[in-house]
Amino acid sequence: MGGHGTATRRWTSAEVPDQRGRTVVITGANSGLGFETAQVFAQRGATVVLACRNPDRSADAEARIIAKAPTAKVSTLQLRHPAASLLPLRAAPEP
Ligand SMILES: NC(=O)c1ccc[n+]([C@@H]2O[C@H](COP(=O)([O-])OP(=O)(O)OC[C@H]3O[C@@H](n4cnc5c(N)ncnc54)[C@H](OP(=O)(O)O)[C@@H]3O)[C@@H](O)[C@H]2O)c1
């Protein structure tokens, strides 16, 4: 087992438990940390909403997630302006 105060083993996304029944909304989900997070949640069964500014980039991210997990429940929600980025969340659909 791991020792105290010393990283003896790396945590990986394989350890993320079942996320079925949960809905997650992820901003910045078309690249980087946001995309990787969205992908893992989708692969674990969560309903994932990619909240992004650029529709082309978010559609591409959605396609990449579906390509790896064809049964993933993923959709996109376009954020119209960074200054109003939280407002569209109120119109997010029910899962
Ligand atoms: N990567 C790392 O190792 C690391 C480590 C520590 C901290 N961080 C921090 O974590 C955050 C994400 O990093 P990342 O590497 O994943 O970056 P990234 O690949 O550049 O992704 C940034 C994401 O945020 C979106 N975004 C940027 N500005 C926005 C705004 N004003 N309103 C709405 N969406 C916006 C981008 O969307 P668009 O496509 O529309 O631009 C993109 O989807 C950054 O703040 C970074 O400084 C990263």
Automatic annotation (TrEMBL):
GO molecular function: oxidoreductase activity
Pfam families in the cross-refs: adh_short
The keyword Protein transport is annotated on this UniProt entry: no
Entry keyword annotation includes Oxidoreductase: yes
This protein's UniProt keywords: Oxidoreductase
UniProt xrefs under Gene3D superfamilies: NAD(P)-binding Rossmann-like Domain (3.40.50.720)
Membrane spanning residue stretches: none
Family indicated by similarity: Belongs to the short-chain dehydrogenases/reductases (SDR) family.
Protein name, as recorded: SDR family NAD(P)-dependent oxidoreductase
